[in-house]
Amino acid sequence: MRAESIILEPVLTEKSNEMREGEQRKYIFKVDPNSNKNQIRQAVKELFSVKPVKCTIINVKKKPRASRSRSGMRVGHTTPWKKAIVTLAPGDKIDMIDGV
């Protein structure tokens, strides 16, 4: 698999911003559901030219959602996805995500 197809997009939330700015630089990415830790580490190293120290993977489950429409309630669920938390070596950071 190519690195561009493994790392789909960064997750930018308040919690992920706090993790990025902390003492340990942790970046959160939405990744391909078929990828593993080694592939994610290699893709981060290749795409952003940094040294990942640790990689944690979380499978985010689907959540029920409902919305109202003219025809009544529409009930469904969100799409399940895979999340990777990548810890970088001290001194490394990803400028593309930090906005520098």
Describe this structure in words.
- There is one protein chain.
- The chain is of the alpha+beta class.
- The chain has a single domain, classed as RRM (RNA recognition motif) domain (Alpha-Beta Plaits, 2-Layer Sandwich).
- The protein has four helices and six strands.
- The strands form two sheets. A four-stranded antiparallel β-sheet has the order 1-2-6-3, with helices on both faces. It has a two-stranded antiparallel ribbon with strand order 4-5.
- A hairpin with a 2-residue loop joins strand 4 and strand 5.
- The mean pLDDT is 94.
Core attributes:
6 strands; single chain; alpha+beta; two-stranded antiparallel ribbon; four-stranded antiparallel β-sheet; 100 residues
Topology:
Layout: H1 3-6, E1 7-10, H2 14-21, E2 26-31, H3 37-48, E3 52-60, E4 64-69, E5 72-77, E6 81-88, H4 95-98
Antiparallel strand pairs: 1-2, 2-6, 3-6, 4-5
Short description:
The protein is an alpha+beta fold and 100 residues long.
| Contiguous uncertain segments of 5+ residues | none
* Percent range for β-strand residues: 35-45%
User: Which structural class best describes the helix and strand composition?
Assistant: alpha+beta
Radius of gyration (CA) equals 16 Å
Superfamily (CATH H level) name: RRM (RNA recognition motif) domain
Helix content: 25-40%
Count the DSSP helices: 4
What sort of overall outline do the alpha carbons produce when their principal axes are compared? elongated
State the strand order across the main sheet: 1-2-6-3
Number of domains: 1
Order of helices and strands: HEHEHEEEEH
